Amino acid sequence: MHTKTKNWQSELVDCIHFLHTKGFAPATSSNYSIRPDESSDFYISSSGIDKGTFSEADLMHVNSAGVPIGDHRKPSAETLLHVLVYQHMPEIKCVLHTHTVYNTVLSTLFQETGQLRLEGFEVLKGLAGIKTHDTYIDVPIFQNSQDMQQLSAEIQAHWQKHGFGQGFLLAGHGLYTWGKDIAEAKRQVEVFEFLFEVFYKIKSFSVVSLPN
Ligand SMILES: [Zn+2]
To answer: pTM for the full model?
Structure first.
């Protein structure tokens, strides 16, 4: 059990470094968590740590409500959003939250619409449950808020109506996505960030080319 937990921790640290290298986590931003098997507790990145130098010691053990276990450090206020995902999706073991240029720009531009539709792209097949490019997903965009209780209530209400999907955006803030293991969650981050960039570039090009 101890060995297994250790493996999860080092795999998550590798993933955090990878996301940092990709430019998905500027400065000390973004937060990440892992829920090991057979547990309702989870481990989450402690706040204020540069993700380029993040180590296993920077992971905090918290209970299913996000309260630190034997740790005086302060978890990120956004720990409650990780709690929300874990409480609603028992099969999910990893939650990744990135702040990137494209997810920030698009979630700002489309916040009034309340969603971003990604349609017809081959790479959609990298998301859990999607088997063909000939489909679309609507990524919900919630208004950014420092009030995690209220934000959680809004997200829950959306899930009840539309299902969990594969992730959500917070306007002007970033992406939350998840997976049944670290590899799946990491793949979903890469797919989303790839598609956000593609979507942005297609839209930019369309605007430039409109006269034709
Ligand atoms: Zn954030």
So the answer is: 0.92
